Amino acid sequence: MGREIKFVGRDEEGFPEKLSCPAIKPPVKGLWYRGELDPRLWQKCAAVVGSRKMSRYGKQVLGELIPRLVGSGYTIVSGLMYGVDQEAHKLTLECGGLALAVLGYGIGHKSEEGAFRLAQKIEEKGLLLSEYEGDARGQTWTFPQRNRLVVGLSDVVFVVEAGERSGSLNTASWAVRMKKKLYAVPGSVFSNVSMGTNKLIESGTARVLTTSTLASLLGQSTKEAGMPVSTQQLGEKDRLIWTSLKLNGPSSINELTRSSGLSSREVLVSLASMEMRELVWQERGVWSILY
Questions:
Q1: How far apart are CA 186 and CA 200, in angstroms?
Q2: Could you tell me which of 235, 145, 162, 232 has the C-alpha nearest to residue 203?
Q3: Which of 60, 105, 167, 180 is within CB 3.0–4.6 Å of 175 for a Cys-Cys bond?
């Protein structure tokens, strides 16, 4: 099972002050935990959430986002569910960062094998938290309840991918209620797991996460945040599409598929990635380069 399970009450030493926020309703009465209540964990936190059906694009975004956040001193907070949550925790540990997992089930419940092994690694250098004791199973209402803790602990919230009815949209709604900084990753209009994030951006609920907005948040220059300065720094598929746009001018997906020799799916993934980095943009289905 791992480390000893402990409990801290709302009025006891060690309870995170952030969770005493009046906007968190119902109030958090106490927390079951595994790991150490290290004050460093609460100082600077970023919630990273998203779809359980993580796409290759979502994984690529996390590969850029998590190292930047960890390098800037953020503890990464998420929910330990499969997909974006688990990938965010894994990358955090690989980067030597601090991970904080908030569970939507009992602190002693043995979850699916992947989450169980990851939880054991997290508690060595971070913390597992839950409002629910013992081996209580997750219910339809416990996960939305869990989300208010994820947001409450965090200073900024990133929604990487979300379907039209994703639980991550509930997390976003808590961020709005608690007046936390909220960012969403733009995705392809053809991707089901980007419908929610695109809607958050379109409605003005969340700021679009791009290289420049991330750089601004972290107090870095655009170059420091990873903006490619030459095509040699692009991946092979991105470079093919970039070169095609450079030589042929604004192009549709079908035109890029023919000129690059890639599949339409590969073209879409690459364009979405470069759009996030503010290298390309599209209007009415026609793509162009920005730099």
A1: 9
A2: 162
A3: 180
- The CA distance from 2 to 188, in Å, is 41
Give the model confidence (pLDDT) of 21-67 as tens digits: 999 999 999 999 999 898 889 999 999 999 998 988 888 889 889 99
Distance, CA of 187 to CA of 223 (rounded, Å):
22
| pLDDT at 229 exceeding the cut of 50 | no
pLDDT at 31: 97
Determine contact, residues 208/183, Cβ cutoff 8 Å: yes
Which CATH number covers residue 68? 3.40.50.450
Give the end of a domain, one of 158, 185, 218: 218
The per-residue pLDDT for 109 is 86
Helix residue ranges per DSSP H, the chain: 40-43, 56-71, 84-94, 113-125, 142-153, 167-177, 195-202, 211-218, 236-248, 253-260, 264-276
| Number of structural domains in the chain | 2
CA–CA separation, 21 and 259 (whole Å): 55
CB 178, CB 152: distance < 8 Å: yes
Query: Are 212 and 265 in a shared domain?
Result: no
Q: Would residue 225 count as lying in a domain?
A: no
Parent domain of 269: 231-289
Q: Is residue 223 part of a domain?
A: no
- Asked if residue 79 belongs to a domain, the reply is yes
